[in-house]
TrEMBL record:
<feature type="domain" description="Rhodanese">
    <location>
        <begin position="14"/>
        <end position="105"/>
    </location>
</feature>
<dbReference type="InterPro" id="IPR050229">
    <property type="entry name" value="GlpE_sulfurtransferase"/>
</dbReference>
<dbReference type="InterPro" id="IPR036873">
    <property type="entry name" value="Rhodanese-like_dom_sf"/>
</dbReference>
<dbReference type="Pfam" id="PF00581">
    <property type="entry name" value="Rhodanese"/>
</dbReference>
<protein>
    <submittedName>
        <fullName>Rhodanese-like domain-containing protein</fullName>
    </submittedName>
</protein>
<dbReference type="InterPro" id="IPR001763">
    <property type="entry name" value="Rhodanese-like_dom"/>
</dbReference>
Length: 114
């Protein structure tokens, strides 16, 4: 699926093997996130970019997610400009939660998308 020139994917197409980058802010992450996602808030993204390049699969896609899809689209576009195979997750964590995907608070509890 493409939105303009930006590749997009729905949460239903993601597997546990996919590399997920969550760009929501710290309070949103703490409330609830997808297990195994890398958290780099959009507000710190450029400063912490090296953390992504170290963690991301060398020849794989980076699936970028936020709350609803707006911030992740901006970050995905930036990553594509850097030569990274990035895909925006349409609907973000709201769609993730609505699809019944697990949301964790990182402390062993069930999280919530805020």
């Amino acid at each position: 699926m493409h939105t303009g020139s930006l590749p997009t994917v729905g949460v239903d197409a993601l597997t546990s093997e996919d590399f997920l980058l969550d760009v929501r802010e710290d309070d949103e992450w703490a409330a609830g996130h997808a297990e195994g996602a890398l958290h780099l808030p959009m507000s710190d993204f450029v400063a912490r970019y090296g953390e992504l390049t170290e963690a991301a699969p060398a020849d794989g896609k980076v699936y970028v997610i936020c709350r609803s899809g707006g911030r992740s689209a901006q970050v995905a576009q930036y990553l594509i400009q850097q030569g990274i195979d990035a895909v925006n997750v349409v609907g973000g964590m709201q769609a993730w939660e609505a699809a019944g995907r697990p949301v964790t608070d990182g402390k062993g509890g069930t999280g919530a998308v805020v």
